[in-house]
């Protein structure tokens, strides 16, 4: 172990597999020997006539055989532990990751082709059930060209998509029974959402700010994303002039 520690700590080498295996077996033998030493006191107490006889001869003979067997294993282990080298230089890593600036104009050289990527996707998805979420689609999307297996009741997979366009919805899913329409928020709920994001403290900074907030909410037409985005942007606007500008 002293040779291994010097090789690893000072020379930055890696211990050999056969050395690691030998050390592991040696540790097991040491633990077994400790157990025998712990049990030996009981057998010594059973000795009599100056240690020539035992009050429990059968147990003592069995214990003696265990010791003899373990001593032979230790002898064999020591004979196999003569290593000229205990460590070697580790192989270099296949790649080294380092921080770098984002590339500009080199995407063509780095990207795989669409067919190659579709093949990779198909190899993964064809072996398992999956749920694929496609958010905010603005035109018809060819699932098969992207390597996505068409979901069926038999394969148990699902594709869920969102879109703001009815024509895209019909093109992607002709069965209108599977489509779920999401309505805009009514005025009262829309203002509650806006107030939650902008903060009630901001709305109380000036009496006219609350009126302007109602006008902003009306312009958002009940769209949650618009209410959330503008509400967060206006959370830091504390003056009437800033609200009038918006």
From TrEMBL:
Pfam families: NB-ARC. InterPro entries: Apaf_helical (IPR042197), Disease_R_plants (IPR044974), NB-ARC (IPR002182), P-loop_NTPase (IPR027417). Residues 76-103 are annotated as: Disordered. Residues 112-202 form the NB-ARC domain. It comes from Gossypium arboreum. This is NB-ARC domain-containing protein. It comes from the Eukaryota.
